[in-house]
Amino acid sequence: MNNIQHWIDGKVVESTSGRTAPVFNPALGEQSGTVALASVAEVDAAVAAAAAAAPGWRATSLSKRAEILFRMRELVDANRKEIATLLTAEHGKVLSDAMGEVARGLENIEFACGVPHLLKGGFSEQAATGVDVYSIRQPLGVVAGITPFNFPAMVPMWMFANALACGNTFVLKPSEKDPSVVMFLAELLAQAGLPAGCFNVLQGDKVAVDRLLEHPDVRAVSFVGSTPIAKYIYETGTANGKRVQALGGAKNHMLVLADADLDMAADASIGAAYGSAGERCMAISVVLASDAIADELVAKIAERIPAVKVGAGNAPDSEMGPLITAEHRDKVAAFIDGAPAEGATIVIDGRPEQPTDGYFINPTLLDNVQPGMACYDNEIFGPVLSIMRVRGYEDGVATINANPFANGTAIFTRDGGAARQFQFDIEVGMVGINVPIPVPVSYYSFGGWKASLFGDTHMYGPEGINFYTRGKVVTSRWPDPAKSTIDLGFPETR
């Protein structure tokens, strides 16, 4: 049985807290290990290691930082399968999905390799007579990341790649449900040549989170998780004077207009709703079907669901794995249980006939769902797709914009004018046009609006560079000392 510890100052450090949590293999429903839960003193030790390393890392040249990240890119690429295997063993997602997660994380390391260009400032010669003005961006110091269970490799890479590239040192608090992947990434960073203390992994629970949020040496906190926790992270972190980006939950809608290719829309619905057992913040959980084609679309989705192969993530033919814990499985099942009493129709019920071992629920399809129902109002975070019937474009847009979540959305249509109007009208941070999961590539930035984001900065890409740096503007003059005079007037440029 694995005993997962901390990574502090370039090495594995045995916990002294005396507290642990179980780690499970969700496909088998069996405990596979334990993970340490940090004490306040252990949090302080990790932050101290990061703070001690910060001056040297900040002074490291941009080229050297990029070189280390290039090496990390090569190591992650060479170890894709091992990372994916570790991921599958503790999260449960199928290996192909895990490999995709690694690939998207790798993209963010590749983006960060361009840090010399990304950190270029501006220069204005002769802004005033003999005066030059230029801007620079400088690292914050020690920054922290708090990451979710559903992407234990990708989301940490979203954060630490840019943070390190910008010259910060990093303390990561991963999910205690699947903590092994980041320990392997820590080893790879060390192999890449990252100095000890620049990257630290702190296993833990709320004790660790709260201490990071209040620690005076932590300058910024990045978070991805549920909306209630994101709100707490943002409010607590900012109250303690920190810069915070906190990405929350979602209820992503896909609007299917009457002119859409329904086979394409049905295929997209299956992939976007049931991939990773619905445990994605960008999963499509609601299809808004135009009345004219709703019956046909529901039939097409329903006929495809039985073909989805559900099983252990490491089985070669599995397309969807289990949920993360028994408690979460039961929570998802409860939403299905309550749907008929609220007026929804269960078209495909994923509760019967799931594998007896592990935390499985098969793909489920609900029809006639409406706002106000628990299955609509809540982020289920499981393999449950809800169909809501709408009159058309205007009704669909109004429904999406009325929802408090605003992470991602999509429209399926052949009408270019409708698609363009949709991207103009919709109040959601990430939009897909005939693309069901519109996760931006690494050189853009990821994040929603409204209750899906707390703070004003999105994750990774250019906004990530801005988040992990502070701007400074320098006004410079090198006058002839012999011509120096006293001038009490306001500075002039002309």
Characterization of this structure:
This protein has helices at 40-59, 62-78, 80-91, 95-112, 115-118, 154-165, 180-191, 206-214, 227-239, 262-274, 291-304, 326-338, 374-377, 393-402, 416-425, 461-467; strands at 2-4, 6-8, 11-13, 20-25, 30-36, 123-128, 131-139, 142-146, 169-173, 199-201, 218-224, 243-247, 252-256, 284-290, 345-348, 364-367, 384-390, 405-406, 408-412, 430-433, 449-450, 453-454, 469-477. It is of the alpha/beta class and 494 residues long. The chain folds into 2 domains: 2-248 and 452-474, Aldehyde Dehydrogenase, Chain A, domain 1, CATH 3.40.605.10; 252-433, Aldehyde Dehydrogenase, Chain A, domain 2 (3-Layer(aba) Sandwich). α4 (95-112) packs parallel to α6 (154-165) and α10 (262-274) crosses α11 (291-304). The longest helix is centred in the first third of the chain and has 20 residues, at 40-59. The radius of gyration is 25 Å and the shape is globular. The protein starts with a strand and ends in a 17-residue tail after the last strand.
Provide the CATH superfamily of the largest domain: Aldehyde Dehydrogenase, Chain A, domain 1
When the domains are counted, the total is 2
Helix count from the secondary structure assignment: 16
Give me the count of strands: 23
Q: Structural class given helices, strands, pairing?
A: alpha/beta
CATH class of the largest domain: Alpha Beta
The largest sheet has its strands arranged as 15-16-17-14-13-19-20
Average pLDDT works out at: 97
As for the CATH topology of the largest domain, it is Aldehyde Dehydrogenase, Chain A, domain 1
Strand content: 15-25%
Straight-line distance between termini: 73 Å
Shape annotation:
globular
From the 3D coordinates, which CATH architecture of the largest domain would you assign?
A: 3-Layer(aba) Sandwich
Helix proportion range? 25-40%
Query: How would a textbook summarize the main sheet?
Result: 7 strands, mixed
